[in-house]
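Worked problem 6 (solution included).
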Amino acid sequence: MIKIAICDDEAPPRAYLASLIRAQDCPCEIVEYASAGNCLADTQEIDLLFLDIELAPDRSGPNGMALAGQIRERATGIQPVILFVTGYERYVFVAFDVGAFQYLLKPVDEEKFAQVFARAVEQIAANRENPQKGRVLTLQSANTSKTVPLDSIYYIESSNHKVELHLKDGEFACYAKIGDLELELQDQFFRIHKGYLVNLSCVAGYSKTEVIKTNTYCMYPAESSRSQFPKIYILSWLMEIPWNFTE
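Solution. The predicted structure is:
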């Protein structure tokens, strides 16, 4: 059973999406919200969220894009798979900045809906099997926020009051404190040096010379962390954090 939420300020689109969901071969529970405020006020955990990007802001909450950002900034609880529903293609790239799984253009095509819904359900199942994989990190850069899946980060480097995320598809830098990130990510990342946080799920191993290898990188831990790293590394393996050796 998966829990699905539909957030749209217009009743007809909500009813239409609900009918499409019920037509799929998937046991589910559906809840509807007419505003972002109502969605934020409900504390129940949601697996899948259909969110109208043009959701009109009101006194009880933000618009759809801002709502997605607030959901991604939550430090606890399940992060839902977000499917944006929009009538405008110009929102597509902005949607992925808040970790949207996919978007659907209005009017929603039934065949396209079925394809996207099936992939979303697969993602939910994968997240349940491996909760770490579904986690994300949201960072502020200038006046925008960017959401990054944790399993896409090789390591985080700190320099000149900024942090740089070394990702599987590039780099991203912003102003942040690596100490704050260490506290937030301590169950999946390890601080091997004053200026480095390494993703344990991307560590290939360590040698007698205590070199940590992340993808093609060789990283040298500080003296103070060398005795702790083997323990943390083994513990992460026992916790079944995935090992990403295919890159």
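Discussion: The longest strand covers residues 153-159.
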